[in-house]
Amino acid sequence: MEYTYLDCLSLFGVGGAHPGGLQLTKHLLAQENIDENMSILDAGCGTGQTSAFLAEKYRCHVTSIDFNKMMLNKAKKRFTSLNLPSNFIQASVESLPFNDEIFDIILSESVTSFTNPSLTIPEFKRVLKRNGTLIAIEMVLEKPLSEQEVKPIINFYGVSQLFNEAKWYHLFERAGFKQITIENFGQQFDETNVQNAADFSLSETIDEQLIEVLEEHEQLLNIYKDILGFRIFKCYA
Amino acid sequence: MSVEHYHGLCQKYRGRAVHITTHDGRTHRGVIQHVDHGRVYLQPLDRTRDLGGFSYGAFGPRYGYGYGGFGFGVALGSIATLALLPLFFW
After folding, report:
1. Disulfide check for A167: which of A163, A194, B11, B19 has CB 3.0–4.6 Å away?
2. DSSP A6
């Protein structure tokens, strides 16, 4: 069996699998005025690291969705072990199973990039309340690449396309967001802060081929370190 | 540093990816699965190596190393350095 990058993330059960990790998540959430009455959608929750942090720290209404069943099961286990109230739904962010205008905040932590953004972004806009905020941490192309050069990245990660900052901005604007801000995050990994390190909910057996996928990922990161970056897009509905 | 020190650190870092160097110069990258009084057990993040260096698994456990029920074991007493691994994921 040929494993994909996302298989690798789900079998290793990587929590906080997005640029900046939980450290960036905490930093971004601290800038919002979150109270217990708010409804927050963790879109593409993975193993639920962010959802658990939201539920524990802010005690707000958290809805967590992911398309990947294995990830969701690992997220549920996390919530059970922490004794947290959970609301997990298996769904695609390209077609959200929610009514219009119900969330105050939506988090997309390196999720939209792995979907068809022209479907996903309008869905986020639809389910956000007026004056709600979409916070998206997404992969951006820092330098133009030819179609040929883009191919190995797209094929390996299974993303649909690679967008630069301007293209992302345009997609958010086209979906009807009133204001969009773009931020960088350059904080270094703190090697002593275990809270912010990715946590792993390993599956029982890890095939050696998965380790090869991980190695290829690390090689690509190294090759494209000046070409692939990420931004934080805050989009106000 | 002492076995007690690394025992405590490994407990704290359970479920996290770490980089370990041992007194004999070997390095290990893996996710901490379990710690007992003598060893830390890792899910390796690197492929089994058998070129030039060492090989685990193939020749059975050597002193200080070997597979147990919880992955690849490293003796706590053999650890020279242990740090969280700054892994980056999209």
Report:
1. A163
2. H
The SS3 assignment for A153 reads helix
Structural class in CATH, domain B3-84:
mainly beta
**A199 interaction partners in chain B (CB closer than 8 Å):** 15-16
Chain A contact set for B10 (CB, 8 A): none
Residues shown for chain B: 90
Model confidence pLDDT, tens digit, residues A107-141: 999 999 999 999 999 999 999 999 999 999 999 99
For residues A52 and B31, give the distance between their C-alpha atoms in angstroms, rounded to a whole number: 21
Q: Which of B13, B43, B46 sits opposite A194 (nearest CB)?
A: B13
Q: What is the pLDDT of residue A186?
A: 86
Q: How far is CA A124 from CA A16, A202, B17, B82, in A?
A: 21, 30, 33, 42
Which token pair is A235?
């989009």
Residue type, B54: F
3-state secondary structure of A174: helix
Distance from the B25 Cα atom to the nearest Cα atom in chain A, whole angstroms: 21
Q: Which of B1, B72, B78 is nearest to B35 (CA)?
A: B72
Asked whether the beta carbons of residue B13 and residue A9 sit closer than 8 angstroms, the reply is no
Q: How many angstroms separate the CA atoms of A61 and A39, rounded? A: 5
ipTM of the complex: 0.93
The percent helix, strand, coil of chain B (3-state, each to 5) is: 15, 40, 45
A58 contact partners, CB below 8 Å, separation of at least 6? A29, A34, A35, A36, A38, A40
